[in-house]
Amino acid sequence: MDVYILLMIWSIISASIYLIKINKYLINKLYIILVYIPLILIAGLRHWSVGTDTWMYLYWYTMSNNIDFNFNFFTILSDGANVEIGYAWLNYILNLLYFNDQSIIFLMSLLTILGFGIFFYRYSKSLWLSTFLFIGLISYQETFNMVRQAFAAMIMCNAYGFLIEDKKYKYLLTILAAMLFHFTAIIYFFIGLFMPIKIKKFLFIIIAGILVFLLGENIIIAQLIDWAPKYVAYFDSTLTRARGIGAGIIQPIFILTLMMASYYFVRLNKFNSEEKKQVEICNIFMIFTILETSLQYVLPILARFNPYCFTYILILIPLILDKIKFSLLKYIIYILIIIITFIYCIYSMSLGRHGVVPYKLFY
Q1: Where is 157: in which H helix or E strand?
Q2: What's the angle, vertex CA 248, arms to CA 265 and CA 354, rounded to 5?
Q3: How far is Cα 32 from Cα 50, in angstroms, rounded to an integer?
Q4: pLDDT for residue 67 is more than 90
Q5: Which residues pair with 82 in a beta bridge?
Q6: What is the pTM of this model?
Q7: 101-132: per-residue pLDDT in tens?
Q8: Which long-range contacts does 123-127 make (Cβ < 8 Å, 24+ apart)?
């Protein structure tokens, strides 16, 4: 796990450039260069054993050199596997250019991680803090495993501005683009119904979520299999069997606390009109994160939706901290966040989450 701890430390050390009194946007670009190049290299040059599904993506690459494309969301590879058409095309093009299988891992890492960096650059009040949390809260390591979901989530994160500006049709088109790389991005159509949120819609989400996932999960799974046959492999597997509630219940409690803090500052009129809308949007994603995190103990496959909603906490935390004007209190909170995040990362890595420990290079 040393490599991930070193990346976290480097993200903090690199933040010292913000002490330089020059243009903020120039410093942010310099920070992207200093921190995201190592992040991309570590992810893109990883061994097939680093990341639970890395070996599968390498195998799929070799199976995509001779495939027939159609107008369905899924394309059948040479071995009979069904893969979303966007991802299949990407593999096919790289094969045509005679790149080796490691190229798909590097390209997906480059596009995904740089894409998240651009998202933080454009919308976070603190690029360095969002980046530090991106690594420490395991979102970075998650891209090693759920490669296509992370890529789809990155696409949707960069459509965040469409939500802020009420450009609903562009947002819907972006969802379709994300679905070309992972079909489960269809969840954004449902989430989009609740933008911006009202109290009645809030209650509807809670009630509907509980009824649907606790009482009707078999119907949902059956419908999903009809829409996307490739997911039949998940049926009656460990991903669809209930499990005991563990330490993960702490996450919903933390998110609820964060949401209450954000609405406390809203009541104090600490946010301007655009920031208020960002708080609303982020908290909608937080509600879905709470539902997904809590209900995955009934239906573990819901953990696959984690990149789609949880990522927004990485910009919500800096947005809230930006409104704390008392310097000493802010420094104390920053120190606590850094310490807790290090502990969380070390603990998660010790559990072997996403199979990213031990780290090895591909050669």
Answers
A1: helix 147-157
A2: 110
A3: 24
A4: no
A5: 76
A6: 0.86
A7: 999 999 999 999 999 999 999 999 999 999 99
A8: 123/160, 123/161, 123/278, 123/315, 124/314, 124/315, 124/318, 124/319, 125/315, 125/318, 125/319, 125/321, 125/322, 126/318, 126/321, 126/322, 127/28, 127/31, 127/32
C-alpha span between 133 and 131 (Å, rounded): 5
Rg, the chain, Cα only: 20
Query: How is residue 145 annotated by DSSP?
Result: T
Task: Read off the tokens for 147.
Answer: 């490669």
- CA gap 273, 140 in Å, rounded: 31
Say how many C-beta atoms besides its own lie within 10 A of residue 93's C-beta: 12
* The pair of three-digit structure tokens given for residue 19, joined into one six-digit string: 């002490």
The residues, ordered by sequence, that sit 6+ positions from 129 with a Cβ below 8 Å of its Cβ are 317, 318, 321, 334, 337
Place of tokens 């208020």: 276
Tokens 């190049």 sit at which residue?
37
